[in-house]
Amino acid sequence: MPENASALHLVLTGDPALFAIVRLSLIVSISATFFAALIGVPLGSLIALTRFRGREPVIVVLNALMGLPPVVAGLAVYLMLSRSGPLGSWGLLFTPLAMVVAQTVLVTPIIAALTRQTIEDLWLEYRDELTAMNVGPLRRVRTLIWDARFSLLTALLAGFGRAAAEVGAIIIVGGNIQGFTRTMTTTIALETSKGNLPLAIGLGIVLITIVVLISALAWGARRAAERFSG
Fold it and tell me: Does the global pTM surpass 0.85?
């Protein structure tokens, strides 16, 4: 089909407009995954290693938030950053930073929930040894996180995959502004509705390639964890 040939031409020739969109998408998604990891890994570890009243409901809510609808997260961030919102004076709405915040809200529960399960499983396995060695709480967390590093990498990749494929939240808080807040997913949706299929297909090819690479990295991390544990 002519559209497919044009799309491949855009990708193979390094079309500046296409790769500017890809670059922004990667910056936003990587940044969101980074901040989500800073929040999610310690939070998941804390829940895994402590016992407190209401712990089970917290775990249920955390697992439920893994499926948080993107438009709901986008709406919540929009209300926070709008002029009438508590953070409206910061002027972040319809900027890439607002998109990072929205994706961070989406990705953090995924990383936290997967971290909680991973660390809790390791704690059950190593609890007697660490207790016998009188390992303190902070060192205990560091030890378990280090031992679970390959599994946690898989969690981070899962979070990045969710961020890279997200469209609803970033349209709400980013506005899909050409040359400023337009990402791969939002551009695919827009250009398809306009009938500009070559650009939409070209971005789709790049997005699928990224998703496949993420899956390959996650698979490699799991294999590395199996070899390390074996």
Answer: yes
